[in-house]
Each structure stands twice: as C-alpha cells, then as structure tokens.
C-alpha cells in the first residue's frame, strides 16, 4: 500500500468525492446468477461503481485467502492439496471474513455463490446472524443458443476481471486492456465443448437456487441477451 504522502492530490480528491457519494447510498446485498457468458462480468463493475458495493467472486476470494495464509485459507489449501472439495461452511466463512472489510460497508455483489440450495441456506443463516439478508437476486436469463458465440469470442484482463468480446465489445487496441494496456487472454475453458458441460451443470445445480429465492420474492429476471446498455438499464430499474 502506498504511503499517503505519495498519493497525488487528484487521487485523494477523487477518493474523497467517491466516499461522499457512497455515504448517501442505501445498503444492498445482491446475488448474481447466470450461466457462463451471460454478461455478469460486464455488469459487475457497473453495479459495484454505481451502488458502492464490494464484488465478491468466491474463486478469487479462495485464492486470495490461500495466498495470504489466513486460517480459513490454510484450511482450504489443505483440503485442495488432499484432493477434497472446499466445504460450503469454509466458503461461507471466507465470505463472512470479507464482509468485515470497509469496502463492503454498503453491501456486496456475490458472484459464483451460492451454486446449490444448501449453499444458499448456509449463506442466509450467516447473514441472518448479522441482522441482514439478501435484498435482490439478479437472474441473467439467456437462451443457451445465444451463449456459444459469446463464450468463444470472450477475452479477459486477469488482474481486474474486465471482460471484452472480439465482436460485441472489442478492446480499443486488439488484444490489450483499455485501462492498463496489458495483454488480454482467452480462458482455456472458453470453448463450445466445455460450455455445454458447464451449462448442463448450471441447469442441474443452480436453477433450484433461483426457485429457492423466488419463493422469498427476491428474484428479478433480466433479459440478458439484450445489449449491454439495455441490461444496465434493467439493473438500474431494479436496484434504484
């Protein structure tokens, strides 16, 4: 972390203005649900910025906890090294730890979890102990037939999670991130065969999660095969 005296006045002023804006925002706790290629990666930065929420991607959080050798991270590492799945309770514990960060004071976007009804129940129980609950579940509803073109043309900037598409949302410079100029990559699993397998798993495991939160009147179905700007407008109408 940079020393305060090394931060420019412009950066300090920008951060001050951001915090002033965020101080008036209502708390929101939002789950993003959708199959690979549905547009969650495109919309997450918009939601995070507009509503001053932290973005919790469980895969990234697990890797970070392991790298920092937190108690839960060490437990996760031990499980993975022994070939076991990381338990639902451990993932919920890592989420619980993350929510204590100042950046999560106004709430969060949760991406990649819960994937099953059991996980949803454990997440709700953890939040209930804090006197909170999930405010809204955004279901990125999109036909499977639309996803293949999206997936096979997707490019990502690993460090930030920013995503692009060779056809629908190309970077300003081919193969380079718009902000940093660093190289974009195509993930190894962004191909049609892997997509079909992932879609099958998604429909079997995660569709019941949508039904679980629908019973609680928490779900909003987004027309995710619309343009990026239109999906953003749909989200704004839902979250206010």
TrEMBL record:
It is an enzyme of class 2 (transferase). Belongs to the adenylate kinase family. GO terms for molecular function: AMP kinase activity; ATP binding. It comes from Ceratodon purpureus (Fire moss). Residues 154-189 form the Adenylate kinase active site lid domain. NCBIfam families: adk (TIGR01351), PRK00279.1-3 (NF001381). Catalyzes the reversible transfer of the terminal phosphate group between ATP and AMP. Plays an important role in cellular energy homeostasis and in adenine nucleotide metabolism. Signal peptide: none annotated. Pfam families: ADK, ADK_lid. It comes from the Eukaryota. This is adenylate kinase.
